[in-house]
Design goal:
The protein is mostly helical. The mean pLDDT is about 95. It contains 12 helices and 5 strands. Helix 9 crosses helix 11. The strands form 2 sheets. Strands 1-3-2 form a 3-stranded antiparallel β-sheet.
């Protein structure tokens, strides 16, 4: 099915349209305003409007957003990953930044965590995230990953967020991990 989708849809797009859809690939649904923010434009250019006319992209007038069909989404993710890790990371960073700017912190956390963008992840206000789920993942899982894998320099620049990470670990019963992180932060101070 993906090979057929590639032949019928992907190959019919211009390079600009392909780039646009790759920028949209992290999302299941997105508004015109959000698309403009992703591509750095005030309004949707003609090539974008043409690309969004695909039969595999549905416009929901009630929600005023574009919804990508699951098969198209799968193809776009595959194509994004084919362009390499740096391109994939850039797309997910932009998606995280868009969510952050829109106040959708759990979604931003999810995008940043997928690419281990610890600097941006820790720049978010984590105070309300401690008992939340990031998609299907409890915040505690992110907290454990941050405590174990985040570079020391980033931890040091983000001490308040790291204290929230330690609190999340303690609240979830990870006493040893919380104590180890607090000791690491104490030494940094």
């Amino acid at each position: 099915i993906l090979a057929l989708m590639e032949h019928l849809v992907w190959e019919a797009l211009t390079e600009e349209q392909q780039g646009l859809l790759l920028r949209l690939s992290p999302f299941e649904a997105i508004t015109a305003r959000q698309i403009c923010a992703l591509i750095g434009r005030d309004s949707l250019p003609g090539y974008a409007l043409d690309a969004l006319e695909s039969p595999f992209i549905r416009y929901d007038p009630a929600e005023r957003r574009y919804e990508l069909h699951a098969i198209l989404s799968a193809l776009l993710i595959q194509k994004r990953e084919e362009r390499g890790a740096a391109y994939d990371r850039e797309c997910l960073l932009r998606a995280g930044d868009l969510c952050r700017d829109d106040g959708r912190i759990p979604e931003a956390l999810g995008f940043y965590w997928r690419i281990k963008g610890y600097e941006r992840l820790l720049s978010l206000d984590l105070s309300r995230m401690i008992f939340e789920r990031i998609g299907e993942t409890p915040f505690t899982t992110l907290a454990l990953d941050i405590a174990k894998h985040c570079p020391a320099g980033i931890k040091k620049r983000s001490l308040l967020s790291m204290l929230r990470v330690a609190w999340a670990l303690l609240a979830a019963g990870y006493n040893a991990e919380s104590d180890a992180l607090l000791e690491e932060l104490r030494v940094m101070l």
